[in-house]
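Weekly modeling sync, notes
Attendees: S.R. (lead), two postdocs, one rotation student

Agenda item 3: backlog of single-chain predictions. S.R. asked that every request posted to the team notebook include the full sequence so nobody has to chase files. The rotation student volunteered to paste the first one in as an example of the format we agreed on. Action items at the bottom.

Example entry:
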Amino acid sequence: MSDDAVQQAREAAEAAAAAAAALQAQAAEAIRRAEEAAALARAAADAATDATATGAAESTPDAAVAPQASAARAQAADGPLDADEVERIRAGYAFEGAALEMGALVNGEALPGVPVRIPIAMTNRHGLVAGATGTGKTRTLQVLAEQLAASGVAVFAADIKGDLSGVATPGASSEKLLNRTDGIGQAWEAASFPTEFFSLGGVGRGVPIRATISGFGPLLLSKVLGLNETQESSLGLVFHYANKNGLALLDLDDLRTVLAYLVGDDGKAELAGLGGLSKATVGVILRELIAFADQGADAFFGEPEIDTDVFLRTADDGRGIISLLEVPGVADKPALYSTFLMWLLADLYAGLPEVGDLDRPKLVFFFDEAHLLFKDASDEFLSQVVQTVRLIRSKGVGVFFVTQTPKDVPADVLAQLGSRVQHQLRAFTPDDAKALRATVSTYPKSGYDLEETLTVLGTGEAIVTVMNEKGAPSPVAWTRLRAPQASMAPSADAAIDAAVAASPLMAEYGAPIDRESAHELLTARMADAAAKVEAEEAAAAKAEADAEYEKMQAKIRAEEEKSRRRAQAEYDRLMKQTSGSSRSRSGSRSGSRSPKSPLEQVLGSRTTQKVIGEVLTGLFGMAKRK
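Predicted structure, as returned to the notebook:
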């Protein structure tokens, strides 16, 4: 090879080396820039997570928005949403006021920098938590209850399966749990929350909850019993009569006794000026009351009646108290369950003042197993539910329905709901598929194929849309939900029993009171009336018997006198016959007393007199009085 060729080869190699060095420098610079961008994105995500966890109301600085949006765009390629849709969701949940942290957006993977939240101020606009069994509804309810309590909002929930009692016990950490919470930006730590346990009428664990029939009122009772307008009007008349006459209606025995009394003779007279009651109508009401009592209603009605203000309390540290109604086996008693919950809402509505829109509600009420509330419910009852849900918002009370599918809740109720958390739905049957399509049709337009997405959600994931601070729906977001801080297992029985025994409410509501009421008063009144009637009937019977006895005695005396005269007449006749023959014979014997004839001797003997008496007795059925 010539020197020129060697020189050219050397120059080419040096040029190639220089080019490679330049490319390496460019690559190093690109890596450095990427690392800086990633660091900025992580810092922005951490800042956003810290800000939302503390309820900060400040807007995200522009310097943090760009890298956070860049990170979202970088991850958008792995999921169904494009970068613009991810950014729209992030902006749609960036509320200014305090909010409940639901979790993080899922787009292939969870995006900690895109939190999904519910404004606390909007929780009084009601909500729905739905999903198939085992998809995490109860845990979602627990997450909401814990954060509401931590924000100073009182919570009421029916603990049907006992799963919620764990809110009173700190949760247990695990590697699996922490991996999940870290992946959605949740800084998890164990915590317990102030909890009060209640029971219906003392059946089960908890402070007994009771209501009086008077406090329940004729309107709601009519709705629960499914009475028609005529029967409802009649029941209202019964309540009016009892109130006017000082007859306290405390339990079902009181109401049954008043109904029975008012169709009796005495009651009819008292209602003569008020239109009266039909026996047929009262019969229907009594039959419905029997069926209602068979559902366990006898345990619920009575005294002392609970003051619903106890459900609005906060603890000494400012956290809201979570009131749990322990109602095991309630699935077999839907009437009792729905009756109590509707009475509670109605009583709260009647007692609370109008407050308008608050920055946080006074109470959030969870209807777990909401399908039981509407099962076999009459149109009148459903109308009452819709009206109560619509109006109670202005009293500072929010209502969340928890059930398997949205179709369990009537359309008029669904129309009142602002927040929706939809867990996985299953489409194993044609009915399931139809319900799935109906559910999808109710969601705002989104970047998801919801009919497919709703069937592939993992446990603890949900499709979420809420009402934002302006009253508009937020974007639909596939969300990986936060984990509860309290125990997800039920609290130990001993711990629940200890909490109930230590409750200050037990002194007031623990023991039932059985004071004199309509049942006792009317029973005594009817007993007195019955005794009076019995006495009068006995006196009349005695007078009649005495009169009959006297009549018989008079007849006996008359017969005796008649028999005596007959016997005397016969005796005189015989004596006259014998005395005539005696005198004729005595004339032949001067100065001497003639002996008695044989007939006289016979008639005058004691034996003959005795025989005559016995004959007379046999003839007339009586003996001569001595």
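Discussion: group reviewed the output briefly. Residues 37-41, 43-77 have pLDDT under 50 and may be disordered.
Action items: rotation student to repeat for the remaining queue; S.R. to check formatting next week.
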